[in-house]
């Protein structure tokens, strides 16, 4: 069972057939739309029909509960004899673990990919350079709102585009979280006075949200920030209503695609990107990611014996070879991509509908089954790029920004552990923080009200979570 971001591949489709031929086995995948995946996973975990392999967030409370109750294989000491399944990075493996136990094969992702995507043509129109500090970022947002960057003579633009974000997680790589880290708040959890605490329990969290509220009050952020569908995040940027997006750096390529596909011959002049931004005092704190996105976990309900487990792990081991990962993440060489410079998969035949289907199946589905990542982040599949110099330029810039920002990354200190009370009460009380943040930004509550909501989190089980997180971290091997 895996996430789906578009149309489900046909079981008889070209790419699935190629994967099955490579494995020498038939595979059956239950594809579930991403928006419905958490709900479907909760239902599946409570059922008696868990697939052999599931793609799952290893920190998801229902999964942690199931795994600790014995519903999934503990792979901690079982991977050494499968050469392609051994963790590529021990720290990331620990981050993806449940208190040091490995219940799945983590899917490698970039350790740092936060960035600000900017309308390059608007910057030139308002006469400003790319921002490097929070103060310069504010100046750009203000100019994009007030200086008619689209040149239509109307006051109908804003600086920053923020979509609705799930309130159930207060540290989920949202634009809010990134800005909070810029101000010096911990990413997720961090040490304060010798104790690890959640990021929202710091003065920097309050300062960051006061800054964001100022931007909301001045009309520098889209007025529908609390309701804009994340699936439509690119639209205001493309249609000339908003000028900046704080998100993963690959979004720069998504918006380049929109301008190129629209027939804009100068699409490379529309998009630029900067990395994480320094504070007013010159100190820089960059927002990192976990180094993984979900894990492939193996069900004890469907895989009952050590012999069956060995069969599944051998299959996953073969899928984790370079040839297998290229099929999952790049597609079929010579059919929809060609290799250039030994490390780049350049798309070809992009106007052939059948080839486009292969590419869509990669992008929207099969890449979810991959574990090794691409060469540019230490993996083994090729980095994929469309043809065209603007893409090469933005990828070169992305690489440069990542290398720079990794030097100032603020890593989540609590990633390796999952507190029992977090499993029991976390989904309910974390929602308090997400909701309170949006209420504060929209003016429904003031600063005192925001702080009162944070105290509700503490009283609702948060204090116990903090104690447990610190105790669990102390028990991890040093």
Automatic annotation (TrEMBL):
The keyword Lipoprotein applies. Keywords: Cell membrane, Lipoprotein, Membrane, Palmitate, Signal. Gene3D superfamilies: Periplasmic binding protein-like II. InterPro entries: Bact_solute-bd_prot1, SBP. This is Putative aldouronate transport system substrate-binding protein. It comes from Nonomuraea rubra.
């Amino acid at each position: 069972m895996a996430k789906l971001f578009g149309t489900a591949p046909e079981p008889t489709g070209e790419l699935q057939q190629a994967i099955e031929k490579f494995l020498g086995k038939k595979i059956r995948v239950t594809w579930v739309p991403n928006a419905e995946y958490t709900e479907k996973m909760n239902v599946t975990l409570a059922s008696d029909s868990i697939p052999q392999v599931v793609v799952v967030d290893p920190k998801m409370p229902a999964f942690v509960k199931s795994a600790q109750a014995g519903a999934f294989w503990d792979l901690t000491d079982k991977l050494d004899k499968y050469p392609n399944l051994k963790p590529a990075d021990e720290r990331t493996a620990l981050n993806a673990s449940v208190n040091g136990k490995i219940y799945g094969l983590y899917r490698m992702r970039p350790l740092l990919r936060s960035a600000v995507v900017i309308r390059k043509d608007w910057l030139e129109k308002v006469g400003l350079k790319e921002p490097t500090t929070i103060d310069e970022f504010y100046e750009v947002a203000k100019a994009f709102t007030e200086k008619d960057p689209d040149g239509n003579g109307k006051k109908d633009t804003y600086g920053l585009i923020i979509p609705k974000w799930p309130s159930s997680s207060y540290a989920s790589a949202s634009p809010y979280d990134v800005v909070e880290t810029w101000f010096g708040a911990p990413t997720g959890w961090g040490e304060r006075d010798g104790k690890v605490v959640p990021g929202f329990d710091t003065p920097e969290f309050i300062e960051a949200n006061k800054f964001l509220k100022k931007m909301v009050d001045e009309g520098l952020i889209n007025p529908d920030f609390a309701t804009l569908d994340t699936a439509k995040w690119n639209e205001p940027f493309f249609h000339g209503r908003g000028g900046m997006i704080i998100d993963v750096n690959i979004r720069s390529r998504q918006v380049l695609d929109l301008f190129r596909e629209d027939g804009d011959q100068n699409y490379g002049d529309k998009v630029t990107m900067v990395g994480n931004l320094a504070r007013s005092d010159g100190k820089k704190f960059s927002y990192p990611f976990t180094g993984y996105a979900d894990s492939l976990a193996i069900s004890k309900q469907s895989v009952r014996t050590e012999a069956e487990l060995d069969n599944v792990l051998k299959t996953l081991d073969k899928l984790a070879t370079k040839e297998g990962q290229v099929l999952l993440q790049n597609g079929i060489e010579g059919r929809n991509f060609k290799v250039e410079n030994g490390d780049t998969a350049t798309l070809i035949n992009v106007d052939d509908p059948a080839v486009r289907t292969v590419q869509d199946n990669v992008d929207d589905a099969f890449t979810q089954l991959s574990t090794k990542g691409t060469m540019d982040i230490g993996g083994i599949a090729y980095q994929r790029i469309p043809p065209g110099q603007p893409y090469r330029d933005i990828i070169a810039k992305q690489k440069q920004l990542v290398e720079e920002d990794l030097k100032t990354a603020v890593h989540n200190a609590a990633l390796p552990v999952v507190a029992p009370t977090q499993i029991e009460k976390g989904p309910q009380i974390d929602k308090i923080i997400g909701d309170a943040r949006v209420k504060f930004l929209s003016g429904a509550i003031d600063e005192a009200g925001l702080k009162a909501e944070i105290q509700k989190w503490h009283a609702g089980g948060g204090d116990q979570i903090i104690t447990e997180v610190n105790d669990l971290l102390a028990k991890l091997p040093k």
